[in-house]
Amino acid sequence: MSEHNELGQTGEEIAAEYLTSKGFEILASNWRYNHKEIDLIARDGDYLVIVEVKTRTSDGWENPREAITNKKIRFLVDAAEAYIMQNDVMMETRFDIVTLIPSGDGWEIEHLKEAFYPPL
Predict the structure, then answer these.
(1) What is the CATH number of domain 3-116?
(2) What CA–CA distance (Å, rounded) separates 89 from 36?
(3) Do 49 and 43 touch, CB atoms closer than 8 A?
(4) Which of 58, 56, 35, 38 is nearest to 48 (CA)?
(5) Rounded to an integer, what is the distance from CA 81 to the centroid of its chain?
(6) By three-state DSSP, how is residue 24 classified?
(7) Cβ atoms 59, 34 nearer than 8 A
(8) Residue 69 backbone dihedrals phi, psi, to 5 degrees
(9) Could you list the pLDDT tens digit for every one of the 120 residues in the chain?
(10) pTM more than 0.85
(11) 101, β-bridge pairs
(12) Of 27, 42, 120, which Cα lies nearest the Cα of 77?
C-alpha cells in the first residue's frame, strides 16, 4: 500500500475513533457505490451522517477541508442517495468533514458539522 493510502487509512481509523468518542455510531466505513466511496457513514442521534475524512501530513500545501471540491460533493451526494435507498434509511442526512493533521505525538482534528449541503 502506498504511503498516502496508509496515511488516509490511518486518518479514517482515527476519525472513526474520534466520532465514536463523541457518541456517534459508525454504520459503515469505505462504503462503495460503483466508483464512488463514502469514508464513514455514522448515526448521530436522529441524523444519518456522511463523513468525508481528509488527512494531510501538514497544512502547508492546503488545509485538508479545501480539498473538498464541487465534484467531490456531487460524488458524495450520489453515493449517499444510493446508501439511503439500499438501506431504506428514513432519517435526516447531514454531510460532515473531519480533517486530520499530525501534531507532535497526536493529531490535530477538526470536525465540521454540516460542512456542505447537497446542491439543488
Answers:
(1) 3.40.1350.10
(2) 19
(3) yes
(4) 38
(5) 15
(6) coil
(7) no
(8) -90, 170
(9) 555 567 778 899 999 999 999 999 999 999 999 988 999 999 999 999 999 999 887 656 666 567 788 899 999 999 999 999 999 999 999 999 999 988 888 999 999 999 988 876
(10) yes
(11) 108
(12) 120
